[in-house]
Structure formats: C-alpha cells, structure tokens
Design a protein that fits this description.
Two copies of one chain form a homodimer. Chain A is an all-alpha fold and 307 residues long. Chain A is built from 16 helices and two strands. Chain A has helices spanning 2-11, 16-34, 43-53, 60-71, 76-98, 114-117, 120-141, 146-160, 165-176, 183-209, 213-240, 243-246, 252-256, 261-265, 267-285, 293-303; strands at residues 107-108, 111-112. Chain A has a two-stranded antiparallel sheet with strand order 1-2. The longest helix of chain A is centred in the C-terminal third of the chain and has 28 residues, at 213-240.
Amino acid sequence: MAGTNTALLADLKMDFPAELQRHVRRIERGIDVYLPPGDTRPRRLHEAMRYSLQAGGKRLRPVLLLGAAELFGASDDSALPAAIAIECVHTYSLIHDYLPCMDNDDLRRGRPTAHKAFDEATALLAGDALLTQAFALLATNYTANPALAGALCRELADAAGSRRLIGGQMEDLLAEKKSDATKEELEFIHLNKTAAMIEAALVMGGIIGGADNAGIDTLRRTGRHLGLAFQIIDDVLDATADSATLGKTAGKDAKSGKTTYVRLHGLASSRRIAAEHTQAARAALDLLPGKREFLHALIESMAGRSK
Amino acid sequence: MAGTNTALLADLKMDFPAELQRHVRRIERGIDVYLPPGDTRPRRLHEAMRYSLQAGGKRLRPVLLLGAAELFGASDDSALPAAIAIECVHTYSLIHDYLPCMDNDDLRRGRPTAHKAFDEATALLAGDALLTQAFALLATNYTANPALAGALCRELADAAGSRRLIGGQMEDLLAEKKSDATKEELEFIHLNKTAAMIEAALVMGGIIGGADNAGIDTLRRTGRHLGLAFQIIDDVLDATADSATLGKTAGKDAKSGKTTYVRLHGLASSRRIAAEHTQAARAALDLLPGKREFLHALIESMAGRSK
C-alpha cells in the first residue's frame, strides 16, 4: 500500500509535502491572526482558546478547504478565514469531547487537554467561544460578498448542528454505553461525527471558489467518502497500532467494550471498505475541474496514514 | 414604585399585558417551528434542546427584538427567526452555566435543569446544538437579503463571543472564587454577561427593521442601560426577595461569599444606580422613531419586577 502511494506521488510531478507544508504554515499563521490575542480580556479564556487551537495536528479540514478553494481558482487569502473557522469548530468539538462528562481524555498528542491544562469550566467556555468565533469569522471577513458569507454560515451551521456533528457525538455517546450497536448506528455516527465536517471543508472551499451546484454536490460526495474512509481507518489503527505511534491511547475502543467498525465488520473487511471509500472519493474528485494533484495526493496520504 | 408604574402604564393607552402576551405566544410557537422536531434523530438530543427552550421564562430578549423590529416597521414574521435565534443563545448559555463545573444549579424555575433531567453530556451537547442552531436560523431564514443575514450573524456572534457573553461568564467565574472583586470587574461582568445579549436583541431588531447607523447606536445604548439596570435589579432581588418569589434560591450570592453589586455599593445605592440606568434607557428610547409605547412599558415592567 505504502509502495503504491509513493509511486503515485512521484507520478503526480508535484512536491506534495512542500505544498502541504505551505498550506499548514498559512493556517498556523491564520490561527494567530484570526483569534483574539492571548493578552486581551479575559486573558485566561483567550489563552485556553489559543492553547487548544495551537496544539498542532494534521489541520486536515482547513487544508481540504484551502485545496478545494484553489481547485476553483480562489486565492488562499480569500479562503483563509473560512479555513480557520472550520478548524475552530473542529477544535471546539475536541475540547468538549475530552471533558470528563464525555470521553474524559487527559492527553491529546501527549499534551494535557484543555480541562487539564486549565480547568473544566475554562475548557467548556473556550469551546463555546471557538464555536462562536467560527461564525464571527465568516460573518466578518466576507462582507464584500454578503451572499457568500450567508452561504458559508449556513453550510457550517448545518454540518456542525444537531443533525450532523453534534448528532453524531450524541449517538456515539449512546453507543458507548452499549456493546450491541448496529452497523446502521455506526454508519450514522461516522457519517455525522466525522464525515460532516470533512464534507463541509470541501464544500466551503468550493463556495468560496464559486463552484456551481454540480460542483458543490461532487465536493460533498468526495468529502463524504473521504470522511467515511478516514473514520474507518481510525478504527483500524485503534485496533492495530501502538499508543506511541498514534500519540493517543491505542486499543481504547476495544477495552471500553465499545462497538467499533472493526468489531462489526472484521479487520480485513474494514480495510477493504475503507479502500472502497477512498476509491470513490478519488473518482468523485476526478469529476471536478482545476489542478487536482494536491487533493489527490492528500487523499493518498490519508489512506496510507499510520496515525 | 409599583404605583408609579401602574399610573404610567395606564397613561400609555396601550394594553401592555395583552401586547406582551401576543409577542410571547408568537415566540412559543416560533420555538416549536424553528427547532428540530423532538422525534428526529438523535431524539434524546432534540428532546433536551426542546426541554430547555420550552422551560418558559420571561422571553425578554426575543420580546425586545420583536419590539425593536416593530419600532422600525418590520413585520413580526420577518423578525421571528432572529427572535428564536437569540433565545437559543440565551438558553444555551444557561444550560452550560448550570453545569456542575460552572454554577452547579439543579433547578430553574422549580424544574430540573438539563443535566439533571437528562445527563451532563446530553446537556453539554444540547447547549452546543442550540448555539449552532441560532446561526443556522439566521443563515437560513434571511437568504432573500444576504446582507441582512450576514449583519445578523455578525451582531449575534460578537455579542455571544469571547469578549462579551462568554467573556462575562469567564470573569464571573473568576470573581466567584474571590471575595474582593472590584467595582470595575463587576461592571465588566454585568456589561458582558448580561447587557451584551440585551443590546444585541434590540440591535438585531433594528437591523431587521432597516434602522440606520444612528438608530443602531441608539438601540445599543438603550440596551446597554437596560441590561445594566436588569442585572443590578437581579442582584438586589437576590439580596432581598425570598426563594419562593424568585423561583430560584435567594441569597445564593451572599452565602457563597461572591462579590455582588449590593455588597460593593450598598442596597440603597444599587437601587439608585439601577433607576439611573432605567432612566437613561428611557431617554435613549425616546430618540427613536415609531410607536415606542410597548418598549417603554417593557422597560417599566423590568424596573418594577419582583422576580
């Protein structure tokens, strides 16, 4: 698998790591610019927001957003505030997900989670503030084209709302309490807890780039398959990799008795289904215009990841 | 004071209770229409959202929004989604504020709070979902006028953000831990934890009604004074009323050792300062066009309230 990826990347005649690095650097700078300064009042709250958002990570969603915008000819500059907005929403969802009343995780990437580094109340409020900041960024930075601002807010609110991201988290919680979740329930969780924001990232990039309805639909389909593949691979890695490689506790799902994709479908089938979704994402992407090399390479790197 | 209010209300030649009732009924119906149905998936999450939003209450913020919109000639229909949006944000902030890691309140208006009626995780997610739903409502229901949708999202995101509503909650939490908060710190808390959303309610109504910049500024000033008066009266009632009248535990602030307005300024001064803010709100309101009777009567009822 790794061999195929390497050959494919070489074929693409594009320096993917350098291009990825360029996007990630823009995002890191954007986080600094588009968040309230850490020394503004209330300082503790703004420090907690920055602490959580500056914890590193793949920056997958904002990179996908920038990549999709570029596909449709939008400049990085115009897409950056939306890219930071989607990372704010992703980070808020992690902060709240790590709280003691949810998954109760003390570490992320070897670093104390917000409620450990600060306290529960500060973490709760920092999450709330990041979610709110996401909409502030969209409503403030796209005023030159009010229809664009509205469309971005709508897309993000839908993807992050009670039927999708939060709905997925809710059903995930309910599923954790029972060891007999069905395939259908797990599909709902993956589709909403994970795929919703990956879809939204691509779609928001497309909206900024001026994609037509057909383009938006194709981006949504690409994101859906990519998101499902991503989450299944996550479950496979949880079952097979060690904690040091993952940067988080491996085997946690199995230990907790939680129903996982791997338990329901088996390891081989899970890998095959993930590969099918990756292939479907590739095929959908090929229907889109523009230079698709970067997004293709990103899909490969996601399929071949080991953490 | 109560006598003055009654005389004033009679003078206004408007049936304030009936008018208020009419607005509240529209809001209650709007909540039912603009929230996801309780039987849609995930049911538990949507039930918790509805349980919290349907807990009754004064509906002060949405009523102010409808009143301000009416002042500028907007129809109730056009203002209703925004009115529900602001009530969603208010309710989310209460749900999170009542959580064990924050104020740890089990009862509101004699009814179990969300984390008691459901559980902590569900309450956390229901709060998140209501905040997100507020932006979804604004982004979805004002598409005919995209600039309007954007302006409403911006106003709400600013008022609910880390420098205002959430910032006020953060400093309130920090102040609870010490008994020597300063007048300036308390002012920051009142201005942001309470006045921000009351300002936003009036301003959003004005935006929907097409108010010009001067009108918006005046609405903001009205809301600021009204919000400050409202919060000081809250502190006075906490120190003087009994729990049965308040519908929540009275004297809680004093018992917890928290610095309150009454402790810093004394009871008589607090009452005087509240009255000054009420008067300033009245004066600002008088600079606005349209039929101001309803908002005047609302200000009086807020100043004279006993709970």
